[in-house]
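queue> pop job 88
queue> type: inverse folding (structure -> sequence)
queue> payload:
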């Protein structure tokens, strides 16, 4: 618990029996440090929130990113007194800022396919650094990408590009197979 006397921070108290001045002189605020909290960015439940999830990648493409953050409280006094609403708007803004910075520094292929783990790790590091700078008292446990897709408006065009790349690979493999078949006969 965080103990306040006349509205100012007085001390921290652990579990057990403690005596403290009654209200209005003293106030006891209990903060659960062992509780794992979560933040959904880009979606709420199953509903998408496009103003949070649409981002521009480093190669100037738009991608729809949904993120889940799990965190707990590492310092009760910082959590309660240093930042207004650390569990709400501050955490949401810091997470969005970190994710936009990481996604904005990578190309769309990294974000959509090969670099998801790297995006998660970089976002976690960036978010923790930002929260420590703000002295929020929050410890980020895990950052996990939920859905990463091109926007629905351009999904068909994106699928066409993917199919074209697959066709290119298939044709190259057929040409290589033909070459392996013809060269020994020619020799």
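queue> result:
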């Amino acid at each position: 618990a965080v103990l306040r006397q006349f509205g100012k921070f007085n001390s921290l108290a652990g579990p057990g029996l403690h005596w403290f001045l009654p209200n209005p002189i003293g106030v006891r605020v209990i903060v659960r440090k062992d509780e794992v909290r979560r933040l959904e960015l880009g979606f709420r439940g199953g509903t998408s929130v496009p103003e949070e999830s649409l981002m521009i990648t480093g190669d100037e493409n738009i991608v729809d990113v949904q993120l889940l953050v799990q965190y707990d409280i590492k310092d009760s006094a910082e959590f309660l007194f240093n930042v207004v609403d650390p569990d709400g708007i501050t955490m949401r803004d810091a997470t969005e800022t970190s994710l936009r910075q990481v996604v904005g520094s990578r190309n769309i292929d990294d974000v959509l396919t090969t670099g998801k783990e790297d995006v998660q790790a970089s976002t976690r590091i960036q978010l923790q650094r930002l929260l420590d700078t703000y002295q929020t008292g929050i410890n980020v446990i895990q950052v996990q990408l939920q859905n990463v897709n091109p926007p629905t408006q351009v999904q068909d065009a994106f699928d066409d590009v993917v199919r074209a790349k697959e066709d290119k690979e298939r044709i190259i493999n057929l040409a290589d197979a033909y070459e392996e078949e013809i060269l020994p006969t020619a020799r």
